[in-house]
TrEMBL record:
InterPro entries on file: TPR-like_helical_dom_sf, TPR_rpt
Gene3D superfamilies to which the protein is assigned, alphabetical: Tetratricopeptide repeat domain
SMART domains in UniProt: TPR
GO molecular function, one term: Hsp90 protein binding
Region (Disordered): 1-31
Compositional bias (Basic and acidic residues): 1-16
Protein's name in the database: Translocation protein sec72
Keywords, alphabetical: Repeat, TPR repeat
């Protein structure tokens, strides 16, 4: 309760509030403020035609080596906040954006045009708000790159398909789909042994995955046929 240490004359109206008072603005710590001031370097900047994009004043660039400035992340955060005016700053941890890459994905049997879409989707996926947990970006990005790996495979570009599959595994090692994509790319390169090893690694994370179990069975049948052919070639013909 607030201390009411003064009195009012008879008939005097008490028009001020004696309730709890709001705390004043805390004074900065002098030592911390000195460190901030010591590191502060004024940077001339300008606004892009978009009023939410800062650029260097001389060259009008978001990232400029000559001016030693990089406003990319600052501008990205500004745009995210402008696009979400109702969010707190920063918003609570349970606020999660919808998949940013969905707008760039589409179902199509044409692998060629799909590649550009998946690449654009990957660029969008890494632009998730900085306040979100890193796992959301990893899940979305790995899904997009996995789809791009499949598109490369359909085009017969097995090296690119393998590279994307390796990227998926580095993002989500325990996701069976990444190991499946890698095995398919290796099989396209006629590396059946390595493909089988990749499937087995995926099964170590999810032993009952039907896609991997079926694919491993197919690979083992291929390996058996290859062994039979090698055996027939190495067996000398018997003369009558």
């Amino acid at each position: 309760m607030a201390d009411h240490s003064h009195s009012h004359a008879p008939g005097e109206d008490c028009s001020h509030n004696h309730g709890p008072q709001s705390p004043g603005i805390p004074q900065p710590d002098p030592a911390a403020q000195a460190l901030i001031d010591a590191d502060f370097v004024p940077t001339p900047l300008a606004l892009h035609p978009d009023p939410h994009t800062a650029v260097c004043s001389p060259h009008k660039l978001e990232k400029c080596d000559k001016c030693n400035v990089d406003f990319v992340n600052t501008n990205r955060l500004a745009k995210l906040l402008v696009a979400n005016p109702s969010l707190l700053c920063p918003p609570p941890n349970n606020v999660v954006s919808q998949q940013l890459s969905q707008m760039a994905l589409f179902k199509s049997g044409q692998a060629g045009p799909a590649l550009g879409r998946y690449t654009a989707a990957a660029q969008l996926a890494v632009q998730r708000p900085p306040w979100e947990a890193n796992q959301f970006m990893r899940e979305e990005l790995s899904t997009v790159i996995s789809n791009r790996s499949a598109a490369y495979f359909d085009l017969g570009d097995y090296i690119s398909a393998l590279a994307d599959a390796e990227a998926v595994i580095s993002l989500r090692r325990n996701w069976p789909k990444g190991h499946f994509r890698k095995a398919k790319a290796l099989l396209g390169m006629h590396k059946t042994k390595e493909a089988a090893e990749s499937v087995r690694l995926g099964l170590s994370f999810e032993p009952q995955n039907s896609e991997l179990l079926t694919f491993l069975n197919d690979i083992e049948k291929m390996q058996q046929k290859l062994e039979e052919k090698r055996s027939q070639k190495s067996t000398p013909a018997v003369s009558a």
